[in-house]
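Minutes, project check-in
Item: structure for the 399-residue chain
Input as provided by the requester:
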Amino acid sequence: MSEIQLPAVLLRKNKDRRLRAGHLWVYSNEVDTRKTPLSGFEPGAAVVVQTSTGKPVGSGYINPHSLICARLLTRRTPAVFDTAFFRQRIETARALRTALFETPHYRLVYGEGDGLPGLVVDRYADVLVVQITTAGMERCKAAILEALQLVLKPAGIYLRNDSPVRKLEQLELYTETIGTVPARVTLEEGGTRFELPLGEGQKTGWFFDQRSSRLAMHKYVRGRRVLDVFSYVGAWGVQAARAGATEVCCVDASALAQELLVKNAAANGVDEIVGVEAGDAFEVFKTLRAAHRRFGVVIVDPPAFIKRRKDIRNGEQAYSRLNQQAMQLLAPGGFLISSSCSMHLPAERLQQILQQSAHHLGLQLQVVERGFQAMDHPVNPAIPETAYLKTLFCRLLPV
């Protein structure tokens, strides 16, 4: 992808407005396929995107097999996507994180938010976890890795390219290790130390995006019994115990997550406070209700129930069912901390779902605080999709 003279992709009339406003995506139905047939491009090839009159909009890469068929990397034309290009972008991204965080544990590159669509890099001190999700970035892999080496000089890089989203780009799934990468790494958040898996863990190992909301949680849990659903390795639950919860019940179906959660609780001296309920969240809810268990705080941080627009209806029903059952386990005046990482579920809609669930149970809902993705997930205001995470801190009262 180092050729300066790049082939052009022409847009249909008036289809450049969103791009000129700052968005980076081109959909296949926005391309003038009579003048520039998509079949004429190789997946991942570098291109110049032009208006219907031939005026350059920017440079990026294309994949004729994807619904989002092109993504812009720069407004410059021509452009060269080489090591120097990626080094500059990565240095810019690192400067933000260095200014915001005391330790080198953060999302270093957040795709479109950092002007690098299709690339995610998480940093665990001298170990990097890289996730490439598009054909264009896959073609640039060598330049990206060289740039990361120049900027950070990591001891090891773990390429976690086994996400199912790669199938949408017709890319193979694989993992690759460069240098020395341990099976598990440690980090500290909110005064709590965690051990987490890289190769066997979820996504890139840790959910940095919830950092701010987890810290905001501390004040709600002091002196209360806490239920942490979808607890993974204890990011919410173990911190809750350290923040003064009297009892924490963590729920997760993964045996590995349970093992590390118990280990993390013991390492932080809260193993007598933190317990684990293994199994499906809805089944555990049923068991807890039958046992007449009640909690002062229930934390619900599920995986994305809405991955595509066609999933919206079923996904909203899942969020409603989950939160309604969570509310049934709250003590009077208790707090529900409910999250959604589904890009297609706006915060206003999540709030509406929670309100409807509360009303169905004869409860009054008070929203007392809102949480968003952490600062290492910067939002591009022209790309609504980059603002995907929302968390509502709610109080439930009798009507």
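Outcome recorded: The CA atoms of residues 118 and 133 lie 5 Å apart.
No further action items on this chain.
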